[in-house]
Amino acid sequence: MSEKQASLSPHYLVTGGQPLHGEVTLSGAKNAVTKMVIASLLTSDTCTLRNIPILGDLELTVKLCQEFGSQVELDREKHTLSIKTTDIKDYHVSTTVGGLNRICVMTIGPLLHRCGEAVIPMPGGDRIGPRPINFHIQGLQQMGAHIIEKDGYYHCRAPERLHGATISLPFPSVMATENLLITASLAKGVTIIENAANEPEIVDLVKMLQKMGAIIEFKVDRRIVIEGVESLHGASHTLLSDRNEAVSLAIATYLTRGDVYLRHAQQDTLLSFLNTLLKMHLRFEVDDEGIRFIGDSNVSPAISLETDVHPGFMTDWQQPFTVLLTQSEGMSVIHETIYEDRFGYTSALTRMGAHVGLYPKCLGEVPCRFREQQHMHSCVVSGPTPLVATRLDIPDIRAGCSYILAALCAEGTSEVYGIEHIERGYEHLDVKLRSLGAYIEKVS
Ligand SMILES: CC(=O)N[C@H]1[C@@H](OP(=O)(O)OP(=O)(O)OC[C@H]2O[C@@H](n3ccc(=O)[nH]c3=O)[C@H](O)[C@@H]2O)O[C@H](CO)[C@@H](O)[C@@H]1O
Ligand SMILES: C=C(OP(=O)(O)O)C(=O)O
C-alpha cells in the first residue's frame, strides 16, 4: 500500500500535552473472553458471559462459533454474551475467520470432543516472534488426537474419545495451558499439565470451567491436575477486568502528569506492575473498587526490569513501559524473556526523539531461552528525552498502544495508522482516552 493509499485508511490523530483526569471503568479481559467463548463449545447448554469487552477478537470468535453452528446473542450495550451450541454443524475453520488471530487453535479440543474432527488453518496473530503451536499439537496428540499438517491446515481426528495424559510443557505457555485444560476437562481419565502457566486469565477460565462441572486443581510447582468428566453443563460467569488496559491507561496518566481512577482495576492481578511503580516513586492509591494513579511525582528514576511468566512482569506491559522509561531520569534496562522479537516498535520511538538501544545479549538475570542467539531481546533506554509527533504505523497490538501513549506526551499531532491492531484488543480506547481529556480523534 502506498503512503497516499494508507493515509485514506482509518487512523487516529493524537495531539500530546494534555493531562488526563477523571475516571474510567475497565473492560473485561481480551485475553480471557475468547477462551471462555470457546470453552462454551464443550456443552450443548447455554453459557452466559458478563463484563465482556466489545472488541475485534471477540467479534471474530463469535463468527468462528457461528460457523460451527452456535447461536450467539451479543448485547453490546450490556456487555453480555449468551452462546448455545446444540450441535456442531461444521468443523472446518475458514482462513478468513480463523487465520486472523490465534484463537482457532483452541477449538480443536471441543470440536474433537463434540464431533471427532477439526480442520483449522495455521494461526495468525501478532508477529512478535515465530510463535509456533508445537506445545498445543504435541499435548493434544498425547491425549489421543491424530493431527496432520497439510496445505496450510491442521487436519485433526479423534477416532476414540480423547484420554488423559501427563503433559510436560517445555515452557509455561498461556494458550497451550488453556487449550489442554479445556480439552482435558472432557477427556477420559486424569490429565496432568506440568510446567503450566498460571496467569490470572487462566485462573478465570478455570473458574468458568468449574462452574460448568470440570474438576481442575492447581498444585505446587506449576502442575495442574484435571479429572476428566463425562459431560459439562451451562454456566454463567463474569469476566475479570483487563490488566493490559489498566496498565496502558495508568502509564498514560503518568506520562501526561494527570490523575485517573481506574474502576475495577484489580490489585491482585497487577502486583508486579504496582511494585515497579513503587520502585520508580510513582504514586497510586488502591481501594475496594479500583486504583487511582496520580502523576504528580518529579521525574522518576531509571530502573531495570525483565519480562517473565506470571507472577512476573508481563511481556504485554513492556511496550507501554518503555515509553514511560523514555521520560525517566537515567539509563533503564529491559530484558524481554517471553518473545524473541518484541522490540521492533522502538525504532518509531527513536524517530520521535527517544534514546533506545537494542542488544542480543541477556541484560538480566532471568534464565532466558534466547541466550547466545542473535535475537534483539534486550533494550536500554536513556532519558528523559522530549518526544516529537510523527507518523506512526502500528505493527502489533501492544506496540500500537505504546505509540498512542508516546503521542500523548509528544509535542505536536501524530498520525497513527494500522488502528485495526488496537481495535482487535482494546474496547474503544480512543473514546476512553477522550473522556479523560486526551486529544485523540479517529479519522475514518
Ligand atoms: C490471546 C492471549 O492470551 N495472548 C497472550 C498469550 O499469548 P500466547 O498464549 O500465544 O503466548 P504463550 O504463552 O503461548 O507464548 C510464550 C512463549 O512460548 C512459545 N511457544 C508457545 C506455544 C507453543 O506451542 N510453542 C512455543 O514455543 C512462544 O513462541 C513464546 O515464546 O500469552 C502471552 C504471554 O503472556 C501474551 O503476550 C499474549 O497477550
Ligand atoms: C500478543 C497479543 O495477542 P495475541 O496473542 O492475541 O496475538 C497480546 O494481546 O499482546
Structural class: alpha+beta
User: Can you tell me the CATH superfamily of the largest domain?
Assistant: Enolpyruvate transferase domain
CATH architecture of the largest domain: Alpha-beta prism
Bound small-molecule species: uridine-diphosphate-N-acetylglucosamine, phosphoenolpyruvate
Strand order of the largest sheet: 21-22-1-23
Top-tier CATH class of the largest domain: Alpha Beta
Shape: globular
Let me know the number of strands: 23
Task: Give the N-terminus to C-terminus distance in angstroms.
Answer: 17 Å
Function: Cell wall formation. Adds enolpyruvyl to UDP-N-acetylglucosamine.
GO biological process, one term: peptidoglycan biosynthetic process
GO molecular function: UDP-N-acetylglucosamine 1-carboxyvinyltransferase activity
Protein name: UDP-N-acetylglucosamine 1-carboxyvinyltransferase
Overall description:
It is an enzyme of class 2 (transferase). The structure is a single chain. By secondary structure, the chain is an alpha+beta fold. It has 2 domains: 3-26 and 241-443, Enolpyruvate transferase domain (UDP-n-acetylglucosamine1-carboxyvinyl-transferase, Chain); 30-238, UDP-n-acetylglucosamine1-carboxyvinyl-transferase, Chain (Alpha-beta prism), CATH 3.65.10. Helix content is 30%, strand content 24%. The protein is built from 15 helices and 23 strands. The protein has a 4-stranded mixed sheet with strand order 21-22-1-23. The chain has a 4-stranded mixed sheet with strand order 2-14-16-15, covered by helices on one side. The protein has a 4-stranded mixed sheet with strand order 4-5-3-13, with helices on one face. Strand 9 (166-168), helix 7 (174-185) and strand 10 (190-194) form a beta-alpha-beta unit. Helix 9 (243-255) packs parallel to helix 13 and helix 11 runs parallel beside helix 13. The chain is globular. It starts with a helix and ends with a strand. The mean pLDDT is 96. It binds uridine-diphosphate-N-acetylglucosamine and phosphoenolpyruvate (PEP). Residues 31, 102, 129, 131-136, 171, 173-176, 197, 314-316, 338-339 line the site of uridine-diphosphate-N-acetylglucosamine (UD1).
